[in-house]
Every structure is written in C-alpha cells, then in structure tokens.
Design brief:
- By secondary structure, the protein is an alpha+beta fold.
- It has 8 helices and 8 strands.
- Strands 1, 2, 3, 4, 5, 6, 7 and 8 form an 8-stranded mixed sheet that branches.
- The longest helix is centred in the N-terminal third of the chain and has 22 residues.
- The radius of gyration is 17 Å and the shape is globular.
- It starts with 18 loop residues before the first strand and ends in a 10-residue tail after the last strand.
- About 35% of the residues are buried.
Length: about 220
C-alpha cells in the first residue's frame, strides 16, 4: 500500500509531547481513521478512490483490515497524545509480506465489507495491491502504511515514529523498503536514508506513479571493510 508520510517542513526545535507505543486493539479504529485522513489526498488514493465524499470512509475500511493483519503478523507503532492516536506506522518484518492465502482467508469478512464500500473501484485497488506487493524484497522490513493526523502534521510526530523504527532496524542491521505515490514525499525519505529502487511505476498511462524506495542495512561495528 502507500507509506504516505509527512513532507519535510521547517524543523521543530522541541520534540512533540506524544509517546510512541505499540497499537492496542482498542485503538485500531482510531488508528485507521488517522491513516485515512492522512492519506486521503495522496495522488494514488485520489486515483483509486475518485469520489471525494466517500474516500475517507473507504480508506478507513481498508486500513481497519490492514491494521488487523499488521498487529498479528507485523508491528504497528503509534504516537499518542494522552488517549488520542496522532500518528501511525504499520510495519512488516522480512518475508511477512505479501499476505499468504491463509491470511487473506482470515480477512474474508473484512474484504467483503471493503468490497461493499468501494464498489466500482475494487479492480483498481486489487491492481494497486499487486503492483506494490510484487516489489517488496523478502529480506526487508516493509513500511506498509505511515501517516499523521492532518491537523498535527509538521510538528515532529512522523519523525518520532520513523526514528523509533529506523533505530531498531539499524541495530539489527536489516534493510527496509517502502512505496509512496506522493512525489512530494520522495525527498522526505531521501533525507532519512532511502534511495530510489527503479523508475516510478505508473498506476495509469499518465500517472499517478508508485515510487519504490529502499534503505540499506546499517553496517555493524564488526562488519568487514
């Protein structure tokens, strides 16, 4: 899916007061709403969900499923301000994505609900999923979704989530991979060590495009060379 993110802006001098923790089941609906709101204007989703009045509702259903699977087979980090979820980073460890047939079957009820909500757009959503899942390297942590509540963006919450994740993968010396359909986000990820994998992949003949990006494993102190 689309990692999204928050395009770079003026640096915040003080970190946000939010805490970073694992997503709890009781916060999954709120986290899905944060991702839906954060990513509703991404070019990929405006293409896949062209009816603006329905887009956030449709994305909430997609991300409820995504987060249910991610909590079981991956990790979902959130920033919280008091009891409110303010940002979400959904991750899969190496070889955990794409989803297996068994995992898709486990989600059958949610898939039916998504099909009901998305109706005529389901074909494009399937194509998007196929295009993204084909490129995920088996040895990488995969950033499946990433977003901060729109009214709280550009205040350091996205950086807080990414720093927590990237510190962990660097200690483990494991690479990571993501895609974005927002060209404004490419520089944001370049600044955090990601590089372009290959030319962007078109969702339609004249766009939008999927930008696949990877970040190499950190070299450990005892690595040769």
């Amino acid at each position: 899916m689309d990692a999204g993110g928050t395009p770079g802006g003026p640096a915040r001098r003080e970190p946000p007061p939010d805490v970073v923790e694992l997503l709890q089941p009781g916060d999954r609906t709120a986290a899905a709403a944060v991702l839906a709101a954060a990513l509703a204007d991404d070019p990929g989703y405006t293409h896949l969900f062209p009816v603006a009045s329905r887009r956030e509702r449709e994305l909430r259903e997609v991300y409820r499923m995504t987060l249910a699977d991610g909590m079981r087979y991956g990790r979902v980090l959130v920033t919280k301000l008091g009891t409110e979820v303010t940002g979400v980073l959904a991750l899969y460890p190496p070889a955990a994505y794409p989803m297996s047939l068994r995992r898709w079957l486990r989600q059958a009820g949610r898939l039916a609900r998504i099909a009901l909500f998305t109706r005529e757009h389901s074909g494009g959503i399937i194509r998007f999923g196929e295009l993204t899942s084909q490129g995920v390297p088996a040895d990488c942590w995969y950033v499946e979704a990433f977003g901060v509540r729109p009214d709280l963006q550009r205040a350091g919450r996205g950086s807080l989530l990414l720093r927590r994740f990237l510190d962990e993968v660097d200690r483990a010396a494991v690479p990571s991979y993501l895609e974005t359909t927002n060209p404004d986000n490419v520089g944001y990820y370049h600044h955090r060590g990601y590089t372009d994998v290959h030319e962007p992949v078109a969702l339609a003949p004249d766009g939008p495009f999927i930008y696949p990006m990877t970040r190499p494993a950190a070299r450990t102190a005892d690595a040769p060379g």
